[in-house]
Sequence to fold (479 residues):
Amino acid sequence: MRTAYSVETVRAAERELMARLPEGALMQRAAAGLAAACADVLGRVYGSRVVLLVGSGDNGGDALYAGARLARRGAGVSAVLLAPERAHGGGLAALRRAGGRVVGADGGGAEAVVGRADLVVDGIVGIGGTGGLRPNAVPLADAVERSRAVVVAVDLPSGVDADTGEVRGRALRADLTVTFGTHKPGLLVDPAREYAGSVRLVDIGLELPASAELEALQHADVARMLPVPAAESDKYRRGVVGIAAGSARYPGAAVLAVAGALRGGAGAVRYVGPAGQAVIARFPETLVSDGGPKHAGRVQSWVVGPGAGDDAATVAEVLAAEVPVLIDADGLRLAEASAVRARRAPTVMTPHAGEAAALLGVEREEVEGGRLAAVRELAGRYGATVLLKGSTTLIASAGGAAVRVNPTGTSWLATAGSGDVLSGLAGSLLAAGLPAVDAASAAAYLHGLAGRFAADGAPAGAHDVAEEIAGAWRSVVRA
Ligand SMILES: NC(=O)C1=CN([C@@H]2O[C@H](COP(=O)(O)OP(=O)(O)OC[C@H]3O[C@@H](n4cnc5c(N)ncnc54)[C@H](OP(=O)(O)O)[C@@H]3O)[C@@H](O)[C@H]2O)[C@@H](O)CC1
Ligand SMILES: [K+]
Fold:
């Protein structure tokens, strides 16, 4: 499991550690890790041209000490000071001793130096930052974008919000971010994550609490969650998932939700709704019934909503069931908030940004810009586990535990019907007995991998994604 901690927690851990170490030791650890990463990126340090963008705090200090290390190995290092009178004194002295030079930020000279750089180190601001880049950094950011230099961000790309992943204004785009002690939420959540490039974590010895702000599952975590049928399992013990989806107008949504559900580990899939013919033609193993959910027979979980059109009665009927329920797509619009809140069995809601915005009564851009706040707010309001789909899918539970961020997503998944497959898959894992947050996050993980396998560099349809779930499952449990 990869974890991320808030700035406040990082600061507390830093204070505790600093009290036990000689002054400056922590910064030296950070700078050593940063210099090593820069050397890797450069390949050949000797003779390379390195430009440090240095702000007013310790983030700039890290950059200066790392620059000194690179200068001692023969790099030509120039530091651009954005706040000359507040630049880290020790770091500046170290750089000068190593033969580095200092360039003023004003007057255009700095931009010319950036234009000739092989490597730019962004030490403008780290976890002490608020808001986007300040005006005097903007011409430099332009010069960096125009240049062919590789950009390495120190701790965070400057201009992004460490705790929320928001980008309120201009930020510097990095190819690599070297972060210290732990990931910060902004490195895992869009839009900030996109600015970070790849992320390298340098251990500086911080001791962090057990519960993190964010968690990103990895293969081994998902493998532990996935159901394994025992010798004596019958279909009810493996779980039966009910799918109440599709309409005369959208029969395909039912087919795709069933396709996902059949690959999710439940022992059987029941379908109720007007698309029974289409479902059975494609998947003869489905148990199709034409009464409503109440008359469908025993299920251990329900999925309601994909392609449901305006069938509010079915949504209400499903919400009254005392088994875990997943609400998706049209179901999110049709569900009564009070009926969701009144449920005692777990509820999972799977909105994309537009649906989440409608539920919260805000603009879509607000959700996209502040995904972490939006998913937490929805989970709290509905007393549900909420999976907010997107380039970084987030899963929050009502209790306020760590938010999960799915690391396997791919933009190829932004295709019609892909969400229907996901809801069937997650519903199936719920029927198999996974806790709501695990069912939702394991489903997102497998779905993302399946999307990557299906696309493999070329567009793929939602049914292709469903077919690759088995391959994704195998790759997770065999890793
Ligand atoms: N924690 C750890 O374990 C370790 C931390 N280490 C390092 O220290 C870094 C944190 O250092 P830090 O506390 O000095 O803050 P930092 O980010 O350099 O900001 C400095 C000042 O910048 C200003 N400012 C604010 N917003 C701004 C903006 N948008 N654009 C421009 N300027 C802006 C604001 O001052 P203001 O101008 O508002 O008075 C703020 O106080 C951390 O990221 C890591 O690299 C490692 O060395 C070792 C282990
Ligand atoms: K930075």
User: Anything to note?
Assistant: Residues 10, 14, 26-27, 30, 55-60, 62, 124-131, 133-134, 154-155, 159, 180-181, 204, 206 surround NPW (ligand 1) (CB under 6 Å). The chain has two domains: 2-212, 219-477. The radius of gyration is 26 Å. The chain is about 40% helix and 15% strand.
